[in-house]
Write a structure and sequence with these properties.
The strands form 4 sheets. The protein has a 5-stranded antiparallel β-sheet with strand order 8-7-9-13-12, with no helix packed on it. Strands 10, 11, 14, 15 and 16 form a 5-stranded antiparallel β-sheet that branches. By secondary structure, it is an alpha+beta fold.
Length: 231
């Protein structure tokens, strides 16, 4: 099945004719969805057995990373890197100045899929805020780490909000559905928002969502594709 994409104005370049493609995902599948697909193909294992095996698989990978190893599989490759400035050759890792980053890259099997993809152009849906990139200023990382109480920057298009409208703003949505709004907007432009990340965010994964009224219409919502993690 062909992957759908639509073209939108590109606010990141100076040419007013430039457009950017955004994939129109039919749906986002969870681990349960993937297991259901496996079972539906006639697999002899039960859902409980699959979940048990995958839990052991996830634990083994997590333990390997914690023990200082990189992990290469046919699907993904995982490694750890360090961010932050070391003052000289005698400096050591300091939690207050440095932070670890998980690096994930496509493995051989996933890379092979790229050559098998097909695409079909579709009409752009109603304009929504488009979030292309998030930068966590405190950790100097993009599209992964989220520092509670720090400064965040998101780039894209149709991002400008009406600050005096409580329904508009930058929202952080936890995996349990809890929503927390950014308390302060520092820079408010159509292609860039700079804001304070709520200080009270608990550890876990978050979806970053911008809500804005476009052209006087109702609230439109746009999310960053990547999940952000508060450690």
């Amino acid at each position: 099945m062909a992957i759908k994409y639509a073209l939108y104005d590109n606010q990141m370049t100076s040419d007013p004719n430039d457009h950017m493609a955004q994939v129109q995902h039919d749906q986002t599948l969870s681990l349960d969805n993937i297991i259901e697909t496996m079972i539906g193909r006639g697999s002899t294992i039960t859902k409980a057995e699959a979940l048990s095996v995958l839990e052991e698989f996830f634990d083994a990978i997590t333990e390997a990373i914690k023990n200082g190893n990189a992990v290469n599989t046919e699907l993904i490759n995982i490694s750890v890197s360090l961010k932050g400035v070391f003052t000289d050759s005698n400096d050591r890792y300091d939690n207050n100045r440095h932070h670890a980053k998980i690096n994930i890259q496509a493995g051989t099997r996933l890379k092979k899929v790229l050559g098998e993809l097909s695409f079909t152009k579709t009409e752009a849906s109603k304009p929504v805020p488009t979030l292309l990139n998030f930068k966590d200023v405190a950790s100097d990382s993009s599209n992964d780490t989220l520092t509670a109480g720090g400064v965040g920057q998101v780039n894209g298009s149709r991002l400008k909000i009406a600050i005096d409208d409580n329904d508009q703003g930058v929202f952080f949505i936890a995996s349990n559905g809890t929503e927390t709004k950014a308390p302060t907007i520092i820079r408010n432009k159509p292609s860039e928002l700079i804001f304070m990340v709520p200080a009270g965010l608990a550890s876990g994964s978050y979806k970053l969502e911008v809500r804005a009224k476009l052209g006087g219409k109702g609230i439109r919502k746009g999310q960053l594709l990547d999940e952000l993690v508060v450690n």
